[in-house]
Amino acid sequence: MESSSFLLLMSCRLLLAFTPIPLTNDLQRDHQLSSPLTSYSRLKEGLWFYQHDVDPYAGGVFRHSPLLLSLFSAVLPPVPVVWALSDMVGAWALVRIWRARQRVNKGPSSRDSLVAAAYLLNPYLLLPSLALSTSTFENAFVLLALMLASDGRRSPALLALAFSTHLSVSTFLLVLPVLMLLVTSSVSQLASPHPFTGSTWTAYQYAGEFAAYWLVLFGAASVMAGSGWGWVHETWGASLTLPDLTPNPGLWWYFFTEMFDHFRPFFLMVFSVHLVIYILPICIKFQHDALYASFLLVGILGIFKAYLSLADPGLFLSMFVLFPEVYPYLRYPIVTTLLHTHASLLLPIFHALWVTEGRGNANFYYAASLVMGVAGGAGVVDACFAGLRIAMGDIAQGERGKWEVVQE
Amino acid sequence: MNHPVPTTTNHGLKEPQKLCFETARTRRLVLGSYWTIIILAFPFWWNLTSIERIALPSYRVRAQLDRKPVFPVSVRLDASSFQGSAPTLGRALHEILAQTAQASPRWRNLDIQVGVSEHAGDQSEGPNVYSVVLGNHTAVRHPRQVVVSQEDASSTLRLGNILSSLLAPEVTSMQAQRIAQYAKRYRLAFTLLNENAASPHLVNSWDIQTALAGKFFRFIYHVFPIISRLDVLHNFTVESQVQYHAPLAFEPLQFAVANNTLHGLTPEDLTVFINSAEWTLSSSVSNDPVLHFVLFIPSPAQQPLHILDAHGLPTRQNAFLLPQWGGIFILNRHARAATMTHLTAADLVPVFSAFANQLSALLGVPPLPDGMMSEESSLLSDWQLDALLRYRTSENMLGSQQTLYSIIKLVDQIENMPVDQKVRGDVHDALTALGEAYRSAMGSPATALRWSSEALSLASHAFFNPGMLALLYFPAEHKYAVYTPLFASVSVPLIVALGREVYGWRRERQVVRSG
Amino acid sequence: MGRKTAAFVLSLFVAPVISSTSNSSDSKPRFSIAGERYHEDLIIQPLRDGRVISTFTFTTLLEGVSPRDPWELETPAQHYTLFPLTLGQILREYSITELHLSLNAGKWNYDNWGYPEDPSVSTGAELWAWMADGGPMSIDERWTSLRNALAGLFCASLGSLDSRRTSSPYSAFPLSSVSSLKISFQYALRHATLPSEHVCTENLTPFLKLLPCKSHTGLARLLNPQRLFDADWHGLGVHVLSTDRGLELRLGVQAVLDPVRESGGKRRDWSFQSLFDRSIDAACPVSSRSTARVVIPDDDGYRLSPELLLGDKSMAIYDLTSQVPLDISMLWPNEHPFPFPPTHTGPLAPLSIKRALHGFSQTHGVLSVALSNNEYGDITIGYLETLPALVTLWMHTIKAEVRGTQRDDLISDISYHPSLLQSNGRYGPSVLQVRLTVPAKSALRLSIDITKTFLKYTEHPPDAMRGWDLPPAVLFPVLIDGPVKYMVNDSFVDGIGTRDRHRTIPHRMYTPTLLVDLPTPDFSMPYNVIILSCTLVTLIFGSIFNLLTRKWAIVKVEE
User: Fold this and answer.
1) At what angle do helices B382-413 and B445-463 cross, to 10 degrees?
2) What digits encode the pLDDT tens for the residues A213-240?
3) So where are chain C's domains?
4) In-domain check, residue A105
5) Which domain holds residue A326?
6) B278 and B417 inside one domain
7) How far apart are CA A188 and CA A327, in angstroms?
8) Which residues form a coiled coil (chain A) (predicted)?
9) Is the peptide bond prior to C325 cis by the omega test (within 30 degrees of 0)?
10) CATH architecture of the region C351-482+498-516
C-alpha cells in the first residue's frame, strides 16, 4: 500500500510527539507560531475556566471554538500526540488529494512520500504543530474537506468543511471552491480549460446540506459554550473586530495598533471585505479547476487573514506540491523562495529584538511582517499567473525567444 | 509597446482568444463580481464613517428670535372710591403707565390697561388684575391691592408714579448687577467664621436653625419667610458650618478715634475680603449656584472692625454685599458678651435680618417705593412678587432664545460637529417650553416662569451636551491622508478596466450594428 | 459573580437608628456642641532601628446621624459645627455608608515597623466605599460622582479610579459595623487603587482644612508639610464609619520619620521640635479630648521629657488641655553613637511578604509572591490580587511551592473573575482571590504566569516608556474552619481556630506595588503604517486583478 518512506515519515512525526523538545514553553508563546485564536496556553486557560465554573469566553482570553473546548474537556486531554495525529491526518489527506488529482486509485505513487514530506517537514507547519497551536487542526480539516471533495464524497466533505469554518471563520472563503470541486472533477484541467461543467443545481443542494451541517454544529457549539451567544463574538467576532493586538506575521495588527480610532471600524470593514472580494473572481476565472481556485484562496488567506500565524502561509506552500504541472510556468520561483527565507529569518530575529530584548522597536517587526506579506503576495501572484499561463502551452522548439506571452 | 500579431505564425502556442477563461463573458463576470462587492460595501462605508448630524429645527428657532412675551396687566380703579372722576383718571393713568413701561427696556413687555371696577379686590377676574382704592395712608394690601391716601390720589401724576413704581419698578444698574443669575435651585451657605479660635472671643456655636426661621420674634425680616414666599421662583437648600480659624488675607487699616483704636475696611478691602485660599465655604458637590452668607467675627486684636466709606471714615454699616456672590456681616463682640461661646437666636437677629435683606437684593426682589407700607402679613407683597416673576420670566425667555440661536449657529458653522438625538430632543423640548411660556404669560406669571425656566435649562443642557464636542477638531485633510493610500491606488485599475470593458462593449455593438 | 451581585443583604443583628439631628444643647464638661464631638490623638512609637512612627488621629462624631436613605429625595437643611461641611455634603449626596480613602507614599515595611495603627497603607491612592443600594442613582453613578467629588476636595487624581480599576472585593474590605445598618437595604462595595498617585502638600492642605482647628492649634500644629513629606513613609487617611453612636469621621496622618538619618547616623534622640520643626503651643479649643501618647521602648536607657504624669510601663500619656505648650522629647544619653541596629530580632509581623515580577521579556512574566511565616503555627489568610486589564493572569499556571516542592493543597477557595468588557468599552480589572495556608516557619511561594497586553497607540499614556503601576495585592484575615466569607473587622484576633497552631492575621496587609513596562508601538508611525500597509495590499490586489481581467496575448519579440 503505502510506500515505506511515507510510513517512516509518519512514524517520525508520531515519535516527535513523545520526544521532549527543548524550549517548548518558548515555542508555545511564540507570536509567529500561534495567534490569540490558536494559542495553546489560551486553550489551557479556557479549559481551566471551564473546570472552575468561570465563563471561558469572559475576559477576552479564550477565543477557541467551543468544539475544541468540549473535545479537550470531555474526550481527550490536550496532549502533543493529538497534534501529531492531526498532522498525520493532514499529510494523509494531502497525499490522497494528490492521488485523486492524478487519478491514481490504487497503490502507492512515486510522489507520495514527497507530498507527505512537503506537509510534515514544512517548518511553517511543523513548528506551529510543535507549539501545539490549534491551527494544526484547522489545516487538517481544510485538507480533509478538499480530499473528501476530490474523492467526491459529498456528505463527509461538507461536514469537514463545516468543522473547518467553525474552527476558523475565515475558511468561509473556501466554501464556494469546495462546492465547485464536489460537482466537478479534481483532475488537473489547467492545461485544457473548459467552461464550468458541473450542475449548478446540485451545487445549490450541496450548499443547502453544508448550511444544515453548519447550523447543527452551531447549535451544538452554543450548547457547549453554555452562556448564550457570547462565544460568537469572542471567537469569530475577533477575526472581524481585532480586539487583541498581539503581533503576528500578518498585516492587520500593526495597522490597527496605529489606526486612528475614528477610522478603525471602517478599515476593519475594508480589510474583511477585501478578503471576500477575491472569492468570486478567482472561482470564475478558474472554473475549470476548482482545486486550483481553493489553492489560490488558501494563499490569499495566508497573506491577509486577521490573526495570521506561520501555519497559514505554510498550508499554501505545502499545497504547491499538488500542482507540479505549473512549475515550468512560474516566473520568479527563486525570488519567492528567497523572500520567504528572508521573512522567516527576519521575523523571529526582529521579534526577539523588540519584545524579548527590548532593544529594537515595533517597526522592526512590522518591517519583517511586510516582507512576509511581499513573500506571500509573490507566491500567490506567481501561482495565479502560472495557473493561467499553462493553458497556452509551450512555445514550439524552434520559435523560442521569438515569441512571448503577455497580458495586454 | 508590442502589438498582438495575427496568429497565423506557427509558434506552437494555443490561441489565448480561444481559451474558455479568455471569453469576454468570463472577463466581464470577473470585473462585475469585483464591482458588486465594492458597491455592496458602500453602505457600510457610509455607516461607519459618517458623523451623526440630526437636523435641528433651525427655522423654528429663528422664528422664536423675534417673539416677545406680552404680560397683560389690568389696573382697576375702585368706582366707589374715585366716584365720577374714575374714567378720566383711568385714561390719564393709562397714558402715564404706558409711557413709563415703554421707556424702560425691562418692562416693555407690559400691556397695562386701566379700568374702573365696582368690586375692587375681587380676584375672580384673574391673576393680573390690580385694584386701587382710597384710604387713610398709602400701602399695599393682599390681594393685589394698593390703598392710596387722599393726598397721593389728588395728583394724577403722583398716582401714576406710585403705580408705575409698583408695576414696573425701576432698577438701577448697580442693583441689577447684584442680582444672581436665575437658577431653579440655589444653595444658601451660612458660615460662622472666627478669625482666630485661640481668642477668648471664640464663638463655637450658633443657634442658626432658630435664627433662620425667626419664629421667636416679631422681627419679620428673616430668611425662611422670604424663602417660602419665593418658592414659586426657586427651590432652596440650606447649609451651615462653623470655622474656627479664618484669617483675612490682608491686614485691616488701623486708626485711632477718641482714644480708641479702631480697625477699618476700605471699599477696596471689601472686594478682596473673601480669603478663598483659606476658607472652605462650600463644596462642589452639586452644580447649583451657591449664595454665601458669612458671619465674620474678627479676632480681638482687630476689634472693633468697621467698614469705611470712600473718605476713610467709619460708617455705621456692619454688613456688605458682594454682587452675585452673597453677603457678609461683621460682628464685633462687646466686652460684656465676649466670653459667651454661643450665639443665641436673639444675638443673631441683626445678623439674619441683614442676611435676609441681602438675600432679597441678590435674588432681585424689587423694594417697595419709598414711603410705601405693607399691610400684608407676608414679607413680600403680591406686587413685588409679580414684578419679580415677570422680570425673571422675560429674562429667562431671552436667555433661552439666545442659547438656542447659538446652538443653531454653531452647528451650521462647524460641519464636523455631531448632533445626536439627545440634542435635538432638548432643542425641541426647549422650543415647546418656550411656546408654553409665551402662552401662559398672558395668564399666570408663575406658570410662565416655570415654563421659561424649563426652556432655559433645556436649552443650556443641549448647548453643553458633551457629544457635540467629540469631533470638533477633525480636519478634512486628515481624512484624505487616511483614505488616499488605499483607495486611490486600488480604484485606478478598477476604473480603467471598467472603462476599457465599456468601450470594448460599445465598439462590439457598433460592429454588430454596422455588420 | 459580577459586581452587581456583590451587594448582599445584611441579615445580621441590625438596629436601625432614627436620625435626630439637633439635640437640645445639654451641657457637657469642658466643651459641648450639640450633637457633635471632636477629639484628637497622637501615638509616637520609637522603633528599634531608630525610626519613629507617628500616628495622628482626628475624630469627629456626628451623634445620632445615620447615612442618608438613598430613596430620600428632598434635601433638608444641613447644619454642621465641627464636622466639615464639604465632606458631609459629599457623604450625604451619595448616601455613603462607609468610606475609606488613603493617600500614601512609600512602602510600609511590616518586618521592621510592625503593623500600622491604620491598616490602610497601600502605596498610592486607595478608595473604597460601601453604599446602600436603591434610589434614583445607581451604585456605579454614585461611585463615579463620589470619586470626582473627592478628587476635587483633596486635589488628587481620584477621577482616574474608573471602571478599569474598580472591583468589589467584599471579603477583604468588609463593612466595619453592621449593627448600625438598616436591614431593608442591600449594601454594595466599590474599591479602587491608584498606585501611581503621589501624595504631596497639595493633598495635605485641603486635608487640614477639614479639621476644626486646621493646623493652627492642637496636634495638627505638628503637621509640618516639609517634615512630613520628607519622611520615609507618610500617608493621609480619611475614614468615615457608621457606628451605633452616629457618623464617625476619622482623619489620620501616619509618618515614619528617621531621626537617625537627620542626625547623620549618630543618634536616635527625637523631640517634636526635631521631628516636626514645631511644638504645640495651644490645644484646639473645640476638642473634647487631646492626647499625645508615647510607646515606651523595650530597651532601657532612654529619658523622656516632660516627666511622665499619666500612663503605665508601656505607654506615656500627655493631655494637651493641661500641658501646653508641649514638646515631648526622648533621649538616649548614653548612646555614642546609636548602635544600628541595636539587636537583631526577627520580623515584627507574623508574615513577611515579597512580591515580584520575574521574566525579562516585554510580553511574558511570572508574578511571584513569597510569604514567609515567622510564627510557630500555620497561618491562613485570604489573598487578593486586582490587576488592570493590561496584564493577563494565566490561571492554569497558578502553583504554590514550599521549599522547592509543589504544594497546591495550600491553595484553596480559588475565585477568579477575568476582566470583563464594561459598557463604556473598557475592560475592568481581573480579580483573583484565594485562600492560602502558610506552614509554620516556612515560606510559601505562589506563582502565576502573566502576559502583558498590546495596546493601541492611542491607549498609551504620554509617558508610555515609564511603565504602568500594578496595584498592591492584599492579604486579609479569613474565618478559619470555613470558606472565605464576609466578616466583621477586628473579630479575628489570634487563635480563633484550633488553638495557637492555626491562625490568621489581625488586619489587612498590603504587598508592594509593581511596575510593568508594556511593549510600545512607534508613536510617530500612523501615517507611515497606513501608507506602507495599504501599498502592499494594493500591490497584491492590483496584480491579481490584472491577472484575472487583462487579455492574454502572444507577441513577437522585436529584435
Assistant:
1) 30
2) 999 999 999 888 876 788 898 899 999 9
3) 36-331, 351-482+498-516
4) yes
5) 4-392
6) no
7) 14
8) none
9) yes
10) Sandwich (2.60)
pLDDT for residue B472: 53
B205 at interface of C, judged by CB pairs closer than 8 A: yes
CA-wise closest residue to A320 among A87, A85, A94, A36:
A94
State pTM to two decimals. Answer: 0.85
Which residue in this structure is represented by grid cell 487538517? A140
**Where do the DSSP E strands lie in A214-344?**
none
How does pLDDT run across C144-164, given as a tens digit for each residue? Answer: 999 999 998 888 888 888 888
* Concatenated DSSP letters of C312-325: -SSEEEEETTTS-S
> Along chain C (559 residues), what's the average pLDDT of each consecutive run of 10 residues?
35 30 34 78 90 94 82 78 88 90 92 90 92 86 91 86 86 79 80 89 89 87 90 93 88 92 84 90 87 86 79 83 85 79 72 88 90 88 92 92 90 89 84 91 92 88 85 88 39 37 80 89 88 94 92 81
Cα–Cα dist C91/C110, whole Å: 33
B350, B397: one domain: no
pLDDT, tens digit, 9 for 90 and up, residues C473-486: 999 988 775 433 33
From B324, B346, B363, the end of a domain falls on B363
User: pLDDT for B419-440, tens place per residue?
Assistant: 888 899 999 999 999 999 988 8
How far is it, in rounded angstroms, from Cα A56 to Cα A43? 10
Q: How many domains does chain A have?
A: 1
Q: Which three cell numbers stand for residue A362?
A: 515595533
> Do B263 and B336 lie in a common domain?
yes
Residues in chain C with CB shorter than 8 Å from the CB of B2 are: 555-558
In this structure, the number of other CB atoms found within 10 A of the CB of residue A144 comes to 25
Domains identified in chain B, total number: 3
Residue (of C196, C505, C194) closest to C371 by Cα position? C505
Q: Do B489 and C86 touch (CB under 8 A)?
A: no
Taking CA atoms, what residue in C is nearest to A357? C361
What is the predicted pLDDT for the residue at A93?
94
Separation of alpha carbons C457 and C375, rounded Å = 49
Q: Does B378 reside within a domain?
A: no
Dist. CA B465–CA B462, nearest whole Å: 5
The pLDDT value given to residue A329: 92
CA distance C446 to B140: 85
Domain of residue B508, residue span: 475-514
Q: At B222, phi and psi to the nearest 5? A: -120, 170
B263 and B192 within one domain: yes
* B222 and B195 inside one domain: yes
How far is it, in rounded angstroms, from Cα C126 to Cα C165?
11
Q: Which candidate, C15, C16, C35, C36, places its Cα nearest to that of C24?
A: C35
In a domain, B69, yes or no: no
- The residue among B35, B285, B297, B342 with the most chain C CBs within 10 A of its CB, best to mutate, is B285
| DSSP codes joined into one string, A259-295 | S-GGGHHHHHHHHHHHHHTTHHHHHHHTTT-HHHHHH
Which residue of chain C is at minimal alpha-carbon distance from A352? Answer: C361
